[in-house]
Amino acid sequence: MNVKTLKYILKRILLAIVTVWVVITVTFFVMHAVPGGPFMGEKAISAAAQAALEAKYGLDKPLMQQYFTYLKDVVTRFDFGPSLKQRGRMVIDIIADGMKTSARLGVVAACLAALIGIPLGAVAALRRNRLIDKIIMVLTTAFVSMPSFIMGSLLLVIFAIRLRVLPANGSTAEGLILPIITLALYPMAYITRLTRSSMLDVLGQDYIRTAKAKGVSSAKIIFGHALKNSLIPVITYFGPMLAYIVTGSLVVEQIFAVPGIGRAFVSSITNRDYPMVMGTTIVLAVLIVVMNLVSDILYKVVDPRINLE
Amino acid sequence: MSNKLSMHVNVDDFLPATEEEKRYMVQMRPSSTFFKDGMKRLLRNRVATVSLIIIIIITLSSIFIPMFWPYSYDKMLGVNPGKPVDSSYNNLAPFTYGKTELKQIEAGEQVFPHVFGTDSAGRDYFIRVVYGTRISLAVGFFASIIVLLIGMTVGSIAGYCGGKVDLIIMRIVDIIYSLPDMLMVILLASVLKQTLGPALAGTALEKIGSNIISLFIVFGVLYWVSMSRLIRGQILSLREQEYVLASQAAGAKGSWIIRKHLLPNCISVVIISTALQIPNAIFTESYLSFLGLGVNAPMPSLGSLASDALNGLSSYPFRLVIPALVISLIVLSLNLFGDGLRDAFDPKLRT
Predict the structure, then answer these.
(1) Domain segments of chain B: what residues?
(2) In the list A86, A268, A304, B165, which could disulfide-bond B161, CB 3.0-4.6 Å?
(3) B171 or B1: which carries more pLDDT confidence?
(4) Could you give the ipTM of this predicted complex?
(5) CA B102, chain centre distance (Å)
(6) Please, which residues 185-244 of chain B have a Cβ atom closer than 8 Å to chain A?
């Protein structure tokens, strides 16, 4: 690792910190710009009760003071305050609860996507323009252009309602199968296409020809030279893949009734549970920003030739 | 003559050209322009041509079918003023009829069929799908135009001015670029939905609906960054190209260079990325509609139709399948057409 790489990493970390700060600030001020405040739409409450509620949640203080208090609480203690609708529960506890299910869903989906997508892409590249390549390309094109909520609903209709082989409700372990497949299909198709094109690129390189000319066995060429090098661009997709899985899980958890963080987020939007909306947005945003940071840095470290500026 | 080092002029080299020699100089076919070349390449690409035809058919039918279709997207067929609500119109299967319509058919009258049946409120489903397609396409198109306008303005300012202005704009672009876009979209859409409603009441914009306006605002705020990056990069690199230098050396004026070199090279990139932005916008709109943050009811969009269909999924799965197919078809053909456009007009970008 040279000075240039270190400088790049430092710059990326700084940008990530600024991004997280922007997310917190935007979220805070956007949520406080809603007319009527968070208690509008509640049953008619007296002015005294309203004032008491506002005092309890610190809403009677000047906006800037509220902002700095919030910023300090979030950064130092991950404290997003209490939930307005689920009385007596802290936002961070609800998020942690939902995260357990959602993380399992997301990690399994991501692993599945990589484990199936990379071999499929390699096979497509090695059998270029043959039947199997064409089938893989047609299928992945279809998967890439299908929104996650449509994929989820169609899978629900086919496997849970028509064939009745899998449960439609995602609150059990078995019920997580369909949501995982739904979430995994798009990144899987994307990774397949990415691996295929970078593998084709690598297979055309001089060093592959040299290896062939030396008489290296084709298995050694594929696994020792081609696959290893063609996986470098796939690393860059890890960040966007996590972002996709997070946003995808918002609707997928809705469709399959999975008790995860996505469902909690959507229902907090409809319930106007502002601390919950703010907390979830910030946590998910930090997750995505950090993952992007990690995959960018990894990319640079694995292949120092690449100039990301 | 035989002496190659001789300084004598060979008179034979200066004879007038014969007819045969002149014929070499005749232009065999009219010179082609950049645009014509591109169109030729585009039409030779079969996938892109088929996608273009599909897009044209879907667009035209979403514009013209509502003009002559006898049902409207928000008319509940079972609800007529002065009569009790006729629930036989709710949830009709394709090509079946409600009670009063059956009587009309028995009396020998022609009744226009409900091609896709009706929804749970007794509205003709075919026209709702057509109308939803129209809304989704319109949202995608106008959102892309907004992104294009903002991106082009900011990008060219950054590219032309350079220096500190460029530095500041690019840092802002960097930050917006690394924001998790979908989360911000959901946050802004959910808040704007409530803020804009009262603000728009009574204005001309009210008809469009606060949700669509907030969708446009969200697009305008978040998605211009990649477009402005692209245009800034284009302007910076095009100014330094050798052919611009060559043109200058040959005595070309500034206006000629801009018209013949900078604009054509920039425009193709701009059009291509706008074309690829449209399916993105349609995708986002349907996603937000699915979460209930899209268009205002009773106006349908493809996303809200799919989301409504979830309630009666086990009995009426086709109500989900139809809008799902239309969205996928639109997004797929727009993407394939955009790729074809890129291959045809900007071969340098091909991957």
Answers:
(1) 37-62+130-349, 76-122
(2) B165
(3) B171
(4) 0.79
(5) 43
(6) 186-188, 190-191, 194-195, 198
